[in-house]
Predict the 3D structure of the following.
Amino acid sequence: MPELPEVETIANGLRLGCSAPAEAAHPALPGLHILSARLLWERTLATPTPAEFYTRIAGQAFESIGRRGKFLLARLTQDTLIFHLRMSGDLLVERLEAPMAPHHRLVLELEGGWRLTFNDTRKFGRAWLVSDPEQVTGKLGPEPFSPALSAPVFYQMLQRSRRQLKPLLLDQSFLAGLGNIYTDEALHRAGLHPLRAADSVPADQAEALLGAIRSVLQAGIQHHGASIDWVYRGGDFQNQFYVYQRTGAPCKTCGTPICRVVIGQRGTHFCPHCQPEG
DNA sequence: ACGAGCGCCTGTCGGC
DNA sequence: TGCCGACAGGCGCTCG
């Protein structure tokens, strides 16, 4: 579940805790101490070595929870613990005595009988424990909601690239946080073809694209993200899709069947009428 | 500088 | 039923 709105949803849950359904209730992380760590799949930990990780993280406490692009950042007493969920990662706060679900890859034992678990079916997710988060997030492009990212700035960013819009928007060093779903949805809202060359987009359409990116991400966050397949956390943005996974279905705007093509090895969905080429 | 291909993993689904 | 390929919300690495 790992695009910006899903990571934001998970970060909010860890930051604020949850009291609602009793079986999912858990405390907020900030303030809680980490007693010990256990790695169940070694490659989940990008850095440091497991031995150093265990000794360094024990005794630290969570201070704050943040997000940068698709990275979730947990600021600890001394270091920053960073997660990237990739395709199937998830973070859960559970009772220590609860049975261990399949696919748990990293477990932090917390004070008060709780544990933070990183669950990741496909094992693509990664964790880092670093003193400076820039070591991990340093190459990311701007945050989509950054006030510094004005329409003229975004237009200039597009002008500097001749790449196709779809792969460019997926490039995290260009803009941080978009993935396959929200890119397709944003391009549809902006009426832009995914193969369109970035430097061919005029200023007014660049502004519309930035607005579409922000509105689709905002809608995703308001719906607590999208829940697809086996990964379900209560989000329901999947019911709001206009193009993603709607191949052959009528466009909600004009009725034309939605097309699916492969661009940069990623399934890409668009309306050939609302998003004309050139 | 860029795109294509592949590796990393597990699971589901549709077709035969 | 069983097998097999395609596909999946990501990204880093090669190689042209």
Remarks:
- The first helix of chain A runs from residue 4 to 16.
- Chain A is about 25% helix and 25% strand.
- Helices of chain A lie at 4-16, 50-57, 134-137, 151-159, 165-170, 180-190, 203-222.
- The mean pLDDT of chain A is 96.
